[in-house]
Specification:
Blueprint lengths: L7 H8 L11 H4 L1 H12 L4 E5 L8 E7 L2 E7 L5 E5 L13 E3 L3 E2 L6 E2 L5 E3 L18 E7 L2 E5 L7 H4 L1 H6 L8 E11 L3 H8 L31 E6 L16 H5 L1 E6 L3 E6 L2 E11 L2 E11 L8 H30 L14 H13 L3
Antiparallel strand pairs: 1-10, 2-3, 2-5, 3-4, 4-9, 6-7, 7-8, 9-10, 11-16, 12-13, 13-14, 14-15, 15-16
């Protein structure tokens, strides 16, 4: 048992088949002790998306991120390779970079140790008297990474199974979309005071369309019509068919009519979250910071060929307006959930059959937590 507040009875109720399953107990979201275990067993041991390769197009381009508490950066090297490097200086642990930009050298602002774009230490001033000091042994630590469909994925677990084979079914589902050809057009930044699972659960069910999105999403994508396929891999897909099956749709290269018309949400556990509709992808990049806090970047992405369209800027503006409006409704709902999860009398509740994605993620989470 991970923690006394996750009782065997609570775990067993979550493990029931969907028709009789309950939600995770409140402590799974609110308890700092559970968070500390979760950070090690779930977040640090899993694959996390840190950037899109188009965000680091040239040598020296970098994007900073946080990987389960480790300050990291995605860097395009002089050799063209994309690497994930720790941002922690090997001298006295100051951070050598923040934000995003382009550098040929990453020079620590504390004692001027300098690292190249592959992480090698190339300058360490006034270290001549340090016995046995080896420049080659003090480069920035490289973090294990993979590129999948344009996403730079990383993990702190050297023994974690490779990412791509775990999501082969997800890749097959989105094969027509050519996810690797999407580029980030704009990024929306948020900071939220909830556990990360509150966001993930909200993202992966359409049941709340009937209330939280009653005037926005529900008229076009009825909650009752949403579908979640079975899978034996660590991902889930929420397919939301469009209510109007006869409205004309634009021609999008490679996509079938339903792929242009319908709304798809997908998650590769725990945190690669995508919302897809035709030639539009919203990548929800969440960074859990504590049991009760997360940072969120919503990246609005389009196929690279759309950048040449005369009305591209207007299309991006429209996507931003719609995304902000929907997320504002989700913020209001998640604030209510978080208040309730922290209430003294809060207990697990029954899942709807429309919340199959939550049930799928709960089974994965419980296994990763050793429950």
């Amino acid at each position: 048992m991970t923690h006394v507040r996750l009782s065997p009875a609570d775990v067993a109720a979550c493990r029931n088949p969907l028709a009789g399953a309950l939600t995770l107990p409140p402590a799974a979201y609110t308890d700092p002790a559970v968070w500390e275990i979760e950070r090690k067993r779930v977040l640090a041991a899993s694959w996390t998306p840190l950037a899109r390769v188009d965000q680091v197009p040239g040598a020296g381009d970098y994007v900073s991120a946080d990987l389960a508490g480790e300050p990291v950066m995605v860097v395009r090297g002089e050799d063209g390779a994309v690497r994930v490097l720790s941002r922690v200086c090997r001298h006295r642990a100051a951070l050598v970079a923040d934000g995003a930009g382009c550098r040929r050298l990453f020079t620590c602002p504390y004692h001027a140790w300098s690292y190249d774009t592959a992480g090698a230490l190339v300058r360490a001033p006034l270290m001549e008297g340090a016995d046995g000091f080896d420049v080659a042994a003090h480069g920035l630590r490289e973090i294990r990474s993979e590129i999948w469909e344009g996403f730079v994925m990383a993990t702190l677990d050297a023994d974690a199974p490779a990412f791509a084979p775990q999501v082969s079914g997800l890749a097959d589902y989105f094969a027509n979309y050519n996810l690797g050809g999407f580029v980030v057009a704009r990024t929306l930044d948020y900071a939220h005071g909830w556990n990360w699972k509150v966001l993930a659960e909200n993202f992966m069910e359409a049941y709340h369309h009937i209330a939280a999105h009653s005037k926005t999403l529900e008229p076009g994508y009825h909650a009752r019509d949403s579908q979640v396929p079975d899978t034996d891999q660590p991902w889930s897909i929420l397919h939301m068919p469009a209510a109007d099956r006869d409205a004309p749709q634009p021609d999008v290269p490679g996509l079938e009519d339903w792929q242009v018309r319908d709304l798809i949400a997908a998650i590769a556990f725990p945190g690669l979250m995508l919302a897809m509709q035709g030639p539009f992808m919203a990548w929800y990049q969440m960074t859990p910071q504590a049991a009760d806090r997360l940072d969120l970047k919503i990246h609005l992405c389009f196929p690279d060929w759309m950048q040449d369209l005369d009305d591209y800027a207007a299309i991006v503006d429209g996507a931003e307006a719609a995304t902000r409006a929907i997320h504002a409704e989700d913020i209001a709902a998640n604030d209510l959930v978080w208040a309730g999860l922290n209430a003294p009398l809060s207990r697990p509740g029954p899942l709807s059959p429309l919340e199959k994605s939550i049930w799928q993620m709960n089974q994965w989470w419980l296994s990763r937590m050793g429950l």
